[in-house]
Design a protein that fits this description.
With about 400 residues, this protein is α/β, with parallel strands linked by helices. The chain has 2 domains: about 25-225 and about 350-405, Rossmann fold; about 250-335, 2-Layer Sandwich (formyl-coa transferase, domain 3), CATH 3.30.1540.10. Helix content is about 35%, strand content about 15%. It contains 17 helices and 11 strands. A hairpin with a 2-residue loop joins strand 7 (about 250-255) and strand 8. Helix 1 (about 35-45) crosses helix 7 (about 185-205). It starts with about 25 loop residues before the first strand and ends with a helix.
């Protein structure tokens, strides 16, 4: 089965937004992943996001990953989608003055430079809010805007390590591993977008903006569940456990005749359904597996029993039996599996978006889905500086002023 045709997407910055954030104006100053992912989330939900990039080179993410035209990577086509691209040299005083002018009329500014950088450029919250009291400034960094580590360079890998994630990822007899995406950056971008929405909601009551301080290590820390409380109260410390979680069973990847299937049946009622599907309902009453704690204590033995049952069966037959029994189970998908899956197609989880010079590009659609005012992918990542003249004219600059800025290398 091939990917189903998706609803036709608009491909230009003239495409109107009907999303829940239509009318919200965002100025994105950040680069690479965390700041731009925050901007992407807001743009996907309908905000007018103007992305400021360095002239000539642009956001370095344009060069990361595979590029079909040796100019803009496919990763950029996703991260830059629904944004208008403007070039401004933030290191020139004239460029800084231009950004202050643009920031007068926006609702949100997103930046992810090292703390103190935008202040040196005269673009800190004090300066920007003096001319725009309702402004929300989203500040994304490795360690936050305060504290003894605030001035350190902070990439996602370091935040994942210090936030507790890396110590839990991998197998206990090997060094920690990472997941195959920049999880710390994306989490922080999401936290920044959430903070922006919360600050905008508060602004409806007070008329005042504020600073959203989103750090990578704290965004990672926020998803570590009971890691810290278990240590603080009972001196229990979680360790790397490979594909399982201590005390959570059965929840693992099990062999099949032609591959692997992941199933999760750790809840009592679900485990009973699994036992019935296995033709061994007595296992649900076995003292070793009768409840959550006993299954966790006897995880290895239980996994071995399930593996013996699953190994001779083709994956498709096994999944059919598990789904019929109401047991959560699935395959380990790659992109080809996603593109061929009828559920992905029915929900339009993937969408084809026209990219100039490339053709249709299949990419993840907007999440989450809203019933009345859904977000949309209106166009893919723009070429560098594609909208500079339009945005500057909207800000009140005339053609002579724009030409002078270009002549001086500011834009």
């Amino acid at each position: 089965m091939t990917a189903q045709p998706q609803e036709q997407q608009s491909t230009t910055a003239d495409a109107p937004s009907t999303g829940p954030l239509a009318g919200v104006r965002v100025l994105e100053l950040g680069q690479v992943i965390a700041g731009p992912f925050c901007g992407q989330m807001l743009a996907d939900l309908g905000a007018d996001v103007v992305k400021v990039e360095p002239p000539e080179v642009g956001d370095v993410l344009r060069q990361w990953g595979w590029s079909p035209d040796e100019r803009d990577s496919l990763w950029w086509r996703v991260a830059g989608r629904n944004k208008r691209s403007v070039t401004v040299d933030l290191r020139q005083p004239a460029g800084q003055a231009l950004v202050r002018r643009l920031a007068r009329e926006v609702d949100v500014v997103v930046e992810n430079f090292r703390p103190g950088t935008v202040e040196r450029w005269g673009l800190g919250y004090e300066e920007l809010s003096a001319q725009n009291p309702g402004l929300v400034l989203v500040r994304i960094s490795g360690f936050g805007q305060t504290g003894p580590y605030s001035q350190r360079a902070g990439y996602a890998a370091i935040g994942e390590a210090m936030g507790g994630l890396r110590s839990l990822t991998g197998y206990p007899d090997r060094p920690p591993t990472r997941v195959g995406v920049s999880l710390g950056d994306s989490l922080t971008g999401l936290m920044g977008a959430l903070g922006a929405l919360a600050a905008l909601q508060e602004r409806t009551r007070t008329g005042r903006g504020q600073v959203v301080d989103a750090s990578i290590y704290e965004s990672v820390l926020a998803i570590t569940e009971a890691l810290v409380p278990e240590w603080a109260v009972a001196h229990l410390e979680r360790h790397r456990t490979g594909p399982t979680l201590n005390g959570i069973a059965p929840s693992n990847v099990y062999p099949t005749a032609d591959g692997q299937v992941l199933l999760a049946a750790n809840q009592d009622s679900v485990f009973a359904r699994l036992c019935a599907a296995m033709g061994a309902p007595e296992l649900a009453r076995d003292p070793r597996f009768v409840d959550h704690r006993s299954r966790g204590a006897n995880m290895a033995e239980l996994d071995a029993l399930i593996g013996e049952w699953s190994a001779p069966q083709p994956s498709a037959d096994l999944l059919e039996a598990l789904h019929a029994a109401g047991v959560p189970a699935g395959l380990l998908y790659g992109p080809a599996d996603m593109a061929a899956d009828p559920h992905f197609a029915a929900r339009q989880s993937l969408v084809e978006v026209e990219a100039e010079g490339v053709g249709p590009v299949l990419m993840p659609n907007v999440a989450p889905k809203l019933s009345r005012t859904p977000g949309s992918v209106r166009w893919s990542g723009a070429h560098l500086g594609q909208h500079t003249d339009d945005v500057l004219r909207e800000a009140g600059l005339d053609d002579d002023e724009v030409a002078a800025l270009r002549r001086d290398g500011v834009i």
